[in-house]
Amino acid sequence: MKRSGALVASIGVTALVLVGCSPGEGSTAVEVTVAPSGLPVQGETLTYDPNRLVNDGEVISLDWWLWDGDEVFQAFADAYTELHPNVEISIVNQPWDDYWTKLPLALRDGSGPALFNIHNSHHDNLIGYLEPYDLPLDALAADYLGVDAHLVDGQVHYLDYGLMTGLVYYNADMWARAGLTEDDHPATWDELREVAQRLTVRDGDRLTQAGFSFNSLFREFSLGLPYQEGQHLFAADMVTPDLDNPTMLSVVERFLDLYEVDQVGSKDFGPVADESFGQGQTAMIYTWGHFYGSLLEDYPDIDFGTFRTPVPDTGEEPYAYDRYNGESTTGINAGASAEEIAVAQDFVRFSLTHADLMRDLCLHYSVLPMYTALADDPAIAAHPVLSALGDVDRYIWPGPLPAAFESSVDVMWEDILYNGVEPAAALATAQQTVEREIAHDGFVSRENHYAAYPAER
Amino acid sequence: MIARKAGAVLLHATLLGLGLLTVAPFVWMALSAFKTNAEINSLDQTLLPREWTIENFVNLQETFDILRLFSNSVLLSVTITSIVVYTSALAGFVLVKYEFRGRTAIFAFVLGTMMIPWAVTIIPRYTMFVAVGLQDSYLSLVIPAALSGFGIFMMRQSMGAVPDEVLEAARLDGASETYVFHRIVLPMSVNAISALSIFQFLWVWEDYLWPYLMINSPEKQVLAVGLTTFSGRYGTDYGGLFAATTLSIIPVIVVYVIFQRRFVAGAASAAVKG
Amino acid sequence: MTTIAPSGVPADTAPRRTRRRLHRGERSLRTTVVLLVVGFNAVLLVYPVVSALRGSFHRWNPLNGTYDPIGFENYATLFTDPVFWRTALNTVVFGTVVITLRVAVGLALACAIFARVTRWKTFFRTIFYLPTVTPLVAVAYVWKLAYHPQIGAVDTVLGLDINWLYDSTFALPAIMVMTVWKDFGYAVILFLAGLYAIPEETLEASVVDGCSPAQRFRFITLPLLAPMTVFVVVTSVIAYLQAYVQILVMTGGGPGRSTNLISFLIYEEAFVKYNFGYASAIAFVLFFCTALMTVVSFRLAGGRSLLKAAR
């Protein structure tokens, strides 16, 4: 007992020493007595004047939670704290799933961060905790597209900095090896099937390179492509979900055919298509713009290209190319202290008027900027994803889609591919699940705000 | 006699074979930790790395601050284990050596608590801890773990074996009950304490959901949660994951090897009557 | 080293139900423990259980402040939801198979290590306990990769081409194999402990009586191990009805719903969808089943001796 006790104690002491020795996280902020001067005012209509003291120059520390992109967001924090050294902004980066488990609970219990990034699919859970932006709305609307869509009781709590949607990524080396050139970018789904066949490689019967894979990436295309044929995700009443329809079924079957008829991929080859693409085993995938950043970061060895989502018929403009979603600006915690909120407001204004950082952010996430100052930006125009998207007006937004849509579509596809469920039956189940799960949400679709939305439906 | 020998050889061969099967995943994991990510991701796999690298371990400290998480977990596991062993021993002693009204009811109640799934209590408990402001503090992890039904049960069973004469002899010499407990009963229960220590250390070490919900600051996080965060954020860095997992296993193995001599004898008290 | 007294202490030392003088310090020690046990459990178990029970009769989303009484609606939804029944079935299959294998493998290996002819006992004990002492979260990730159809070790070693975690036939078994591997060491150690506690004389006597090893196992070892078996089974039932980490890490309940387990369903409803009321309702059904199964296990194995054992 004595010996064991001594051992336990020594382990404990070692642990304490280790903890004590770890790098401390002492604040880097220092008190400031003299306001900055002579710095240029930034912004277009909405402006930010850095030549004054924030929080009376006293030291203050803000937490900023996010689930991704800590480096691009760190740049905003660094630029701001350089202007105002009395402010410290600590970024806490947590994976997506963790983030959405913990953030709403933390906000509710008053222990949440002063600043936190928002995804609009969680709009309902967050809106009650958001401090409205303290900004002149006219000026904001002059500089940012789509501000109106974010008005809640005449106030803006967050807005979109960019528009994200889907497109096809291809492995450039495989593309060249198959004898394909840039002229071969498929414009229609039929053309994509042909290209995919040329990109498929087998060793005997064993697939060694998939021409196209959509494993685990079901939700993006399933909830976007029906729009190409004029099929909405909601019935005309804007509240009843409409997943179980012939157009959706044809989209499902088109993708199934890629595996079953064309055999350009397999449900068992690379169970997660974007990973398989990164591992250099899959030639083409369809996913959203954010994958661009992951590719650069996680798979720097992959040389890739992009092209716009194919459409059903050549030469015919689809009703919409795809669904898009807005990437939201940072939220301010209404439960934070008055001082924190004041600094957070100042920081938000600073961020929204900083064109260079905004551009970097949009480039990083491959989103079309909503900041009009960046409309003709050469770097945006040269970006491989953004240049591929084409006309912004041909993308439709159903609103901040409840998470039930995405999770039900995932289950539906797994049932079809792996559990042998008939597509029609799986669609019917998905329809029922979504109906039940959003029954108490009060969600209203924004599809009818789309420019080409039919007058009579 | 020959048949006997053959039997013994066969027995050892089977045990060795199963032992090999048991450690195989560890071997694969440890060896993979020395592979480059390109090799881990490639279509043809070999057991031994074609090109040895320690990059995965080196990067780990930078991206993940594994040392910090590691020491947090060790500190927490040791603290909680010590508390649980002490409270369990004390309660076990009282419940088996003292006769009083309600004793059986309390013991049955303690046994009953073992059956309550975490899922039932976790939501109100979460609300409760946050309401009193214990979020992001280690107290929130220590308090709910301080008393263990399993521990009390185990210590009670084992302390039944301590002969009453020994206690009586000490009492006749004028020893108080606290003296009897600390100086006589505790040392005599060292096997059960070892066993409980191993079980409890392990449970704290791998506990995931509660620390995940309660702790927000990355610098306070525990290793089990850190590992999931790691795979959430660097999900594609398999080499790093292998390295982190390999490292996370070491301390529990150390604790096990320290206590294992007494472990088996102690584990008996879990169910075999004293 | 104290060993566990095999046959109980002499009867005359057992406390009697007679009035006797309290020992010095007994009352304070006793009061401390009773207050500790009662107070701790009242605050950390009884109160949460009662509020969860109340919550299960409400539409309850603490985030937007919803707490509307809806009577038995959560329970009604639950029992008419095919997802719940599928999940319940998965849980039963998972629990039965894993517990059976854990007990069988554990018992067999414990006997093998215990056998007189076996050498390197400590070595085997350590090896077989190794998976048990590793954090589940960590090994679940490692196994997930091992099951990868293209780059995983399992297919490479076995020369197969199976998409283990995505194939509805293999996904649940694959997770069960991982779980058995992770946990059988616990049973080995406990059974070994039980075997060591069997008095030497009992076994020797059987040899003298000419029992074959098989007879000895069937009629002497096995009955003497009964309390330990009950203990292993009961703790396993409690543990496996609550298993969810391997699901969270390895499949997320998929493909479709084919590996969804009850506790994972609760986790998802509560902490992903914030349906706290519905999650509480499922949790109570689980609680009821755990209690039922525990009692049944006790009864089946005559485990009442456990409660009265220590004297």
Automatic annotation (TrEMBL), chain A:
Keywords tagged on the record: Sugar transport, Transport
Please name the InterPro entries in this protein's record.
Answer: Bact_solute-bd_prot1, SBP
Keyword Transport applies: yes
Which residues does UniProt assign to the signal peptide? none
Entry keyword annotation includes Transport: yes
Q: Name one Pfam family in it.
A: SBP_bac_1
Q: What is this protein called?
A: ABC-type sugar transport system, periplasmic component
Look up and give the organism this protein is from: Sanguibacter keddieii (strain ATCC 51767 / DSM 10542 / NCFB 3025 / ST-74)
Automatic annotation (TrEMBL), chain B:
Superkingdom is: Bacteria
Q: Where are the transmembrane segments?
A: 74-96, 105-126, 138-155, 184-205, 238-259
Give the record's keywords alphabetically. Cell membrane, Membrane, Sugar transport, Transmembrane, Transmembrane helix, Transport
Transcription regulation is among the record's keywords: no
Q: What is its main location?
A: membrane
In which compartments does the protein localize?
Cell membrane
Q: Could you tell me the membrane topology recorded for this protein?
A: Multi-pass membrane protein
Task: Report the sequence similarity comment from the record.
Answer: Belongs to the binding-protein-dependent transport system permease family.
Name of protein: ABC-type sugar transport system, permease component
UniProtKB/TrEMBL annotation, chain C:
The annotated region (Disordered) lies at 1-22
Its protein name is Permease component of ABC-type sugar transporter
Domain named ABC transmembrane type-1 is located at 88-297
InterPro entries tied to this protein: MetI-like, MetI-like_sf, UgpAE/MalFG_permease
Which organism's genome codes for this protein?
Answer: Sanguibacter keddieii (strain ATCC 51767 / DSM 10542 / NCFB 3025 / ST-74)
Q: Which Gene3D superfamilies match?
A: MetI-like (1.10.3720.10)
User: Taxonomy-wise, where does this protein's organism fall, top ranks first?
Assistant: Bacteria, Bacillati, Actinomycetota, Actinomycetes, Micrococcales
Query: Membrane-spanning regions, if any?
Result: 29-50, 92-115, 127-146, 170-198, 219-241, 276-301
Q: How does it sit in the membrane?
A: Multi-pass membrane protein
Task: Give a Gene Ontology cellular component term annotated to this protein.
Answer: plasma membrane
